Every structure is written in C-alpha cells, then in structure tokens.
C-alpha cells in the first residue's frame, strides 16, 4: 500500500487519518490540495511530508497559466503555502529547497512544458532517493540489532512516514529480513495515535510481531527488562545531535538512559539541520486542543478545558546512543561526526 503515488497530473495519497479502519485514498490535484493533506495529517512523517510537498510544488507549476517570465514569482507563492503547513520537520523545507533550486537552474529554459517536466523529475528523484536511503539506513541499523531483540518504538517511523520502507521500522524490516528474531513494542503515541493506528497496522500487514502499549507503560516495560533497544524516527536533528521527534520521545530517552538501554534515532541525513546549532532553536508545532479533548468526535475531556498540545519534543544528544542514517551510524560527538558523514556518498 503506497503512502503516496504520482499519477502524472495528480498525487494519490493514502489518507492516514482513516487507518486502520479504512484504507481510503485522496487524489490531490493542486498544491492547495497537497497543503491541506499535510496540514490535516492525512499524510505525515518527515520524509513523506518532504516528498509530498515536492509533488505539490510540481502541481503548482502544472496549474500555472501565465507567461514563462511570471512563473518564478508564482512559484514563490506556491512554495510559501507549502512551507506554511507544518514547522518542525526539516525534510519539508529541504525538499522544497531542492525544487526551488531546480526551478532556478531552469531559468534559461524558455519552454514551460520543459520546466514542468524538470520539476516533476526532481520530485520523482526525491521520492526515489527516500526509498533507496531507507533501505541503506535499514542495513546500517541492522548491524546494531542483536539476533533476538525486543525493540520499543514511538509514533510511526515506518513506510507510512516515508515514501516506502521506513526509518526506525526500516531497521526492523532489515533485521527481520536478516533472519533475526524481532518483536516490536509500539507506543500508542497519544494524542494522534500514530503508534496504535499506523505502526501496529503496518507491522501486522508485514507479519512482524508487534505488541501495542499505552505510552505510560514504557517505563514499566523497561523496568521489567523487556526492552533490548529503543529506535525512533526524527523530524529535525540539530548540528549538536539534539533531536526533535514526536511528543513523548524525550521521556522514552530519559527512561532508556536510566535503565541502560540503547536509544537510537533513525533518520536520513536530509533530517539533519546543520544550520540549527542546538535543539532549543527547533520550532515545535502546537496543534489544536481538539486532538486531546476528543477522539474521533467523542469528548474525552470537558469541552472548554484549556489544552497544551505540542506535537513534538526535543531529546538532548546526551540521551542518544547513535543516529542511524543512510550513510552509516553516527556516534557522539555529533557536531564533529556529522561533518565527517555528510561528505560520504550514499
Ligand atoms: C520517519 S520520521 C516520522 C516522524 O514524524 C512523525 O510526526 P508526525 O506523525 O506528526 O508527522 C513522528 O515524529 C515520527 O517520528
């Protein structure tokens, strides 16, 4: 089941707000449709958001009806709209910058159809790169996984968070493919329940043993010695290794540290933001209080109770054992070792 699929004049998106009950697709035919799908988390997950926004940029160019001279100004508006959807995942901005660079490199191309073709090709490259990098990342991460391991993960960093295969769950898939005896504990991940609705569903689709737990059970599981390692995804990694990921990740990292359990972040290098010195500068998205006060329209709290709903938190680098990327596993000190790994081919 593909997270997203380019159809030549539209982008088909698996509507993740309907999972696991229904597998429903939406066809986005404009950059505004794509922006809405990202904002409403019908597609979510840092790499998936980046690739989706890249196709949204291409859709903007396809819909443009003015002169060649007016295209660049129009595309600035398209890019701004897509950039405004969600602030934390750096992959969104990284992907849109690749599309803007492609447009700039095509400034001498007069034929609008040719420019559009170049933009679609770049979006395809971003999507293809993600598929390829996740498999490389999975192999690097597999080397860290014992022959028999119980892996705790948080949120969804699987196929549904990427174009395919996943990052944290990419490591799980690579370990299973290598014949290792893997079981996964999946945090439900309130309030949006990516773990319960997406990770549990995705792993069961692949026949990978998964046990769903409520977020508040992770510490007890570790205390019982039932977790061998923790692997999570990431939305933005600062130059010093501080990592923004789904809310609740920081708590898991501190618990893993207390229990002496390795805590890994799995992410493509496109998630590393070297311009951001430390985690304190990472913008944290706050979402509607309704996501906490209700579940699928059913009130679970007083309708007028004030809510604080940060969608992400930042885990300090000191709690992160290693960062698994398509170019290899990075160990601390991250500020030094990122520079070494970024120059490696992938
Ligand atoms: C493969 S990175 C996925 C990353 O994105 C998720 O956030 P959201 O579901 O709000 O887009 C979560 O932080 C995952 O770890």
Automatic annotation (TrEMBL):
One of its GO terms (biological process) is L-methionine salvage from methylthioadenosine. Pathway: Amino-acid biosynthesis; L-methionine biosynthesis via salvage pathway; L-methionine from S-methyl-5-thio-alpha-D-ribose 1-phosphate: step 1/6. Its EC number is 5.3.1.23. The record marks 155 as: Transition state stabilizer. The active site is at residue 235. The keyword Isomerase applies. InterPro entries: IF-2B-related (IPR000649), IF-M1Pi (IPR005251), IF_2B-like_C (IPR042529), Initiation_fac_2B_a/b/d (IPR011559), M1Pi_N (IPR027363), NagB/RpiA_transferase-like (IPR037171). It catalyses: 5-(methylsulfanyl)-alpha-D-ribose 1-phosphate = 5-(methylsulfanyl)-D-ribulose 1-phosphate. Belongs to the EIF-2B alpha/beta/delta subunits family. MtnA subfamily. This is Methylthioribose-1-phosphate isomerase. It comes from Acididesulfobacillus acetoxydans.
